[in-house]
Amino acid sequence: MDRIRIVGGARLNGTIPISGAKNAALPLMIASLLTDETLTLANLPRLADVALLKRILGNHGVDMTVSGKRIGDGDLAGETVQLTARTIVDTTAPYELVSKMRASFWVIGPLLAREHFAKVSLPGGCAIGTRPVDLFLMALEQLGAEIEIEAGYVVARAPNGLRGAHVDFPKVTVGATHVTMMAATLAKGETVITNAAREPEIVDLAECLIKMGAKITGAGTSTIRIEGVDRLHGAWHEVMPDRIEAGTYAMAVAMTGGDVLLEGARYDTLARPLEILTEVGAEVTPTNEGIRIYRNGADLKPVDVTTEPFPGFPTDLQAQLMALLCRAQGTSHIRETIFENRFMHVQELARFGAEIHLDGQNATVVGVPALKGAPVMATDLRASVSLVIAGLAAEGETMVNRVYHLDRGFERLEDKLSRCGATIERIAG
Ligand code: UD1
Q1: Is 357 touching ligand 1 by the criterion CB < 6 Å?
Q2: Per the database record, which ranges form the Enolpyruvate transferase domain (predicted)?
Q3: Nearest-5° Cα angle at 170, 197 to 188
């Protein structure tokens, strides 16, 4: 298994190109199941989760071709892929594939809308809490599906097709909002989703669906209206930049000091975390090319942060912020409200000498004058990258084990960081 070796202490200076967003790419790829025409997606990140979803979609009958590079494309440019689901050859998404990545469960929406039947294994993914699917099933039932759970599979039927309905989510859920929106595009009549997720990835998916002929208004607000159409057609769409990747590198620069342009990053998708970074002591400047993060040697200040659905502080940046706050002058508080078991990085951060106290969903981070490099273990996607950030700022050598978690969500992390002056390398093994 590959490992990542870091020697901490270097400031980061330069430009980091931000890749296409994993959390937008996945639902966009799944949307290709809704039409028999070609959906072309540009700026797809080269990530393990994207590769896995290609296999899952291939299994359902999606043909994929990858376009060659264009002149001027840097070596970190995203991929352009044509996805064509001329016919759906299999409406079953098997356990072996779905158990590896939770988002693959989302194929249930398009399969049911187009084929009126889907059999999808209950999902897996990061081990961060129980992560049930009750709200997906609630929404699909409201759209007229009959749902049964059989031997670990969700079997969903809509013999006469789906029909529009009012879907009111008792809790904000990104995945179930994506799925309901996709399913409703081909339902008969109007669907209204209330308490919908407002994440930028929902807007990106809605924009792509609209290009495919869907009638959607309100994406990005908590009420989304979808007027069903008979069929969708092909389209071209560019995946939005990854706000979590950009936020992660912003925290790294805030921690090590330096001056980095996050090329392509969109300020509007990161306003809250960047506001927090400013409070902590970094300088944040939106530019025409992206977002510039700067910090000289000044002290880091402690902050109190609660994770919330967008536009609040994202749970996907909680671990990275915690790493940063380990070096603040004073005591910070972090409250995790989205996932119940998302503090697995705490025991690994402790190996660097961090002082963090946990009480249920609350973490108290007591800043220490210095972190010391250590061997650590990646436990989930976002937790692993917090260990990289800590390692970049720690004295001496850090070895991050089990980096396959990182490869699920961060494209060529070690290349992007070493080009900015970090001492970081992948050790194959
Ligand atoms: C997505 C993101 C993930 C991010 C999360 C929250 C992708 C591929 N993943 O995950 O990176 O951390 O949003 O921003 O986009 N819930 C239920 N029942 C359900 C569905 C969800 O109780 O049927 C709960 C979850 O357990 C969690 C909360 O709702 O407590 C939010 O989860 P959700 O927004 O659905 O997360 P994902 O879509 O899985």
Answers
A1: no
A2: 8-417
A3: 70
Q: Which residue has the tokens 């079953």?
A: 92
Residues 6+ positions from 168 with CB-CB distance below 8 Å? 193, 194, 195
pLDDT at residue 298, rounded to an integer = 81
Distances (CA, A) of 287 to 17, 266, 292, 382: 14, 10, 7, 27
* Same domain flag for 304 and 201: no
Ligand 1 centroid, distance to 336 Cα (angstroms): 13
Tokens of 79: 């991929």
Last residue of a domain, one of 238, 253, 274: 238
Give the count of alpha carbons within 13 A of 207, CB side only: 15
Question: Pick from 250, 283, 286: which is nearest to 268 by CA?
Answer: 286
374: Cβ below 6 Å to ligand 1? no
C-alpha distance across the termini of the chain, in Å = 5
Residues 158 and 82 in one domain: yes
Residue 275 lies in a domain: no
| Cβ pair 182, 34 in contact under 8 A | yes
Lowest average pLDDT, out of 56-70, 106-120, 122-136, 179-193, goes to 122-136
Do 12 and 62 belong together in one domain? no
Do 345 and 321 touch, CB atoms closer than 8 A?
no
- Rounded Cα distance, 361 and 363, in Å: 7
pLDDT of residue 48: 92
102 is in an annotated binding site: yes
CB 205 within 8 A of CB 196: no
**Would you say residue 274 lies in a domain?**
no
Confirm whether pTM is higher than 0.85: yes
Please report, rounded to a whole number, the percentage of residues in the chain having pLDDT higher than 90. 86
Give CA torsion, residues 357, 408, 204, 176, to 10 deg.
-70
Catalytic-residue membership of 126: yes
Instruction: Compute the average pLDDT of residues 3-32.
Output: 97
Residue 340 CB less than 6 A away from ligand 1 = no
For residues 12 and 55, membership in a common domain is answered with no
